[in-house]
Write a structure and sequence with these properties.
- With 228 residues, the chain is mainly α.
- It has one domain (4-224).
- 83% of the residues lie in helices and 0% in strands.
- The protein is built from nine helices and no strands.
- It has helices at 4-19, 21-35, 41-72, 74-99, 110-121, 125-136, 141-158, 163-185, 190-224.
- The longest helix has 35 residues, at 190-224.
- The mean pLDDT is 80.
């Protein structure tokens, strides 16, 4: 029962990552590009699942390496165990500020990624797996804030180098699977779903950003300053 809240948070972070503007457009473009080269619904659905698997594997691998590496160093592990509660508050505030677009990191290197993506897509369903791996490691500012500023600290606090990243990866996969189903059965509906998800994502970012900042302020006041 104690894991339900952290697991739910990891799942929501994954969903929010996937429907944020940059990853959302990337996911739809990738599956649409692959779908145009496949002549059957099962093949489109398979490409969507493989693309999803690629993203999940990439997120889990990155998080597991970071978290397991930090926990494997005894002195650092003990320090994190002692001070992680104090670090989590400020990190949540920073992540919330990113979600509210109070500041942002510059984007970089889209041309190379796009070129590699087109080459991978030409491989059909198997290329979808490579696309998932590629686009997962190409972090946008918001997805980077959610992954490195929220998921990794959460997984460190729970001492969970695999479970939390897996749940996060599954969260990023849910909207992608929906896109693949829509493209396979009713591509005309994709525009309406995209517009609806874009509107939902704006409100989800706003609410999540405010919650992150308020929670971060509370944790900071409680664990850093001994108040509340």
């Amino acid at each position: 029962m104690e894991l339900l809240a952290p697991l739910g948070t990891a799942l929501w972070l994954g969903v929010l990552t996937s429907i944020s503007p940059c990853p959302l457009a990337t996911n739809i473009a990738a599956i649409s590009f692959i779908g145009r080269r496949l002549d059957s619904r099962p093949a489109v659905l398979l490409s969507g699942l493989l693309y999803t698997l690629g993203r999940v594997v990439a997120y889990v691998a990155i998080a597991a390496v970071i978290i397991a590496g930090l926990l494997a160093i005894p002195a650092l592990s003990n320090w994190l165990q002692k001070y992680m509660h104090q670090l989590l508050g400020p990190l949540l505030v920073v992540a919330g500020m990113f979600l509210l677009d109070l500041f942002a990191l510059p984007r970089s290197g889209g041309g190379t990624t796009e070129a590699l993506g087109k080459r991978a897509a030409q491989a059909g369903a198997i290329g979808a797996l490579l696309l998932g791996l590629l686009f997962a490691v190409t972090f946008c500012p918001v997805s980077a804030a959610l992954f490195f500023g929220s998921l990794v600290p959460l997984a460190l606090e729970q001492r969970s180098p695999v479970l939390m990243p897996v749940v996060y990866g599954l969260g990023t996969a849910l909207p992608v699977v929906v896109f693949a189903v829509i493209i396979a059965f009713s591509a005309q509906a994709l525009g309406r779903v995209f517009n609806a998800l874009t509107a939902f994502a704006r409100w989800a970012k706003l609410v999540t950003g405010v919650v992150f900042i308020l929670t971060g302020i509370y944790l900071t006041l409680h664990y850093v300053f001994g108040l509340l």
